Amino acid sequence: MSRSDDDRDCVNIVVLISGNGSNLQAIIDDAAAQDCPYKVCAVVCNSPIAYGLKRANNSGITTRIIDHRDYPTRRQFDQALMSTIDQFAPALIALAGFMRIVGPEFIEHYEGRIMNIHPSLLPQFPGLNTHERALADGAREHGATVHFVTTELDAGPVVIQSSVPVLQDDTPETLAARVLEQEHRIYPRAIRWYAEGRLSLHRGKVLVDGAINGAHPVTTS
Ligand code: GRF
Q: Is residue 182 located within the same domain as residue 206?
């Protein structure tokens, strides 16, 4: 059963994307459940040709395009993003395959209210090409991480991780597909925790149900 459009009883989130938007789709699908405590009030994208925009449109979700190429500096791009996002007054901003680095002003503006999904078991393989690097390193285990965003790239406190085995005949593509399945499981779960008030960032530590999560991230596989 899908959530009725005029349901105002849930937490609003804005999702930022750059491309395919399969994580966005997992979030949209989760938000359609009757018991879901959050709602995607807008999708903001830096690329006018991203497939994720179609996914949002298909679900009747408001979209905004803030093309980074229209802004001479990162700061101006960040400002445009912030004023767009703030029109929706979201409780949470979820970066889902958003391929632009946001600056400190942006991060401070939404402190404790921005999450990201990263395709590795952080702190291993921050940055790009994580699957290629995991294979080149001979990793036996790989996975995905949801974390709060801080000013240090891919180094914010971990909320939840999920691991997958690396198989002998894996290519970056087969490994990416296995990891992506886990991304689709854990990101909606983390967003639910946040929307239910069970998850927060307190003095740089992740609290889940009032207990510090930092030293022992929840791992699910
Ligand atoms: C995902 O692997 C995400 O972790 C990474 O970029 C990819 C985006 O995939 N940051 P999608 O756009 O959600 O399909």
A: yes
What's the alpha-carbon Rg for the chain, to the nearest Å?
17
Amino acid 7: pLDDT: 52
Indicate if ligand 1 lies below 6 Å from the C-beta of 96: yes
For residue range 48-86, list pLDDT tens digits in order. 999 999 999 999 999 999 999 999 999 999 999 999 999
Q: How far, in Å, CA of 165 to CA of 147, rounded?
A: 21
Please state the domain count of the chain: 2
Neighbours of 151 (CB within 10 A): 14
- Residue 214 confidence (pLDDT) above 60: no
For position 1, what pLDDT does the model report?
A: 42
Judgement on whether residues 82 and 46 belong to the same structural domain of the protein: yes
Calculate ∠ Cα 108-67-154, nearest 5°.
Answer: 40
Residue 143 near ligand 1, beta carbon < 6 Å: no
Cα distance between residue 167 and residue 135, in whole Å: 9
| Ligand 1 centre distance from Cα of residue 20 (Å) | 8
